[in-house]
Design brief:
single chain, mainly alpha, 216 residues
């Protein structure tokens, strides 16, 4: 998304991001399936399912620059704090309800353009989950959110022939990187995995701010 929004309007970039993300998640689901825990993932999925329709409805109405600037600012402020902390604080309050709220936020942001990951990712890090537990939740969560989002886009008329043509081209180009990513994943320690995720989120936040600020 941080690259495509430079050249494509949100109502085209959003479906492209969601479609390609869904393909990538489906290709690598077997990596995390062995540790999948429905008890942990279900609150996120249920909360996200409530949030997706709202995000999909907002996509054509929220000024893209405002959304990108807000999301970018969140990442730019939060991620460095987490990277500089010796140990992440462990949050134990809220239980499944708090997990569902994090999933709802992810669902709303996912419906807005495929950003279903940042809030649940940071929340699970604060919960102290190891990388396999996080991955085992993220994979089914993203699969469900992206599937629901595409259904909402289809119902809203956002899946046009031009979007399908662009997706077919992008899908071919992302297959090899998705396979490589699934293999590299196993080489990361918990600390390395956390650092990689936060650095990717930080880079995404910087790019979003850079693209949004001139348009505010």
């Amino acid at each position: 998304m941080t690259f495509w929004v430079w050249a494509l309007p949100p109502d085209i970039a959003g479906p492209l991001v969601v479609g390609c993300s869904l393909l990538g998640q489906a290709m690598s689901i077997r990596v995390a399936w062995h540790s999948f825990e429905a008890r942990r993932a279900l609150p996120f999925i249920l909360g996200g399912a409530i949030g997706v329709p709202l995000g999909a409805w907002l996509l054509p109405h929220v000024p893209p620059a405002v959304f990108k600037a807000a999301l970018g600012a969140l990442m730019v402020v939060w991620c460095p704090l987490m990277l500089l902390a010796g140990d992440l604080p462990r949050l134990t309050f809220g239980g499944r309800i708090a997990d569902a709220v994090a999933g709802w936020a992810g669902g709303v942001m996912g419906g807005l353009g495929g950003f279903s990951g940042p809030v649940p990712t940071l929340w699970c890090a604060l919960r102290g989950w190891d990388k396999d537990s996080q991955r085992a939740m993220f994979q089914p969560f993203h699969l469900c959110m992206h599937t629901l989002t595409l259904a909402a886009y289809l119902a809203g008329g956002l899946i046009t022939p031009s979007v399908l043509a662009m997706f077919a081209f992008a899908a071919v180009l992302m297959i090899l990187p998705a396979v490589i990513g699934a293999r590299v994943y196993a080489r990361f320690s918990d600390a390395g995995f956390r650092r990689m995720i936060l650095l990717l989120l930080l880079g995404s936040g910087v790019a979003l701010l850079a693209s949004a600020i001139p348009r505010l």
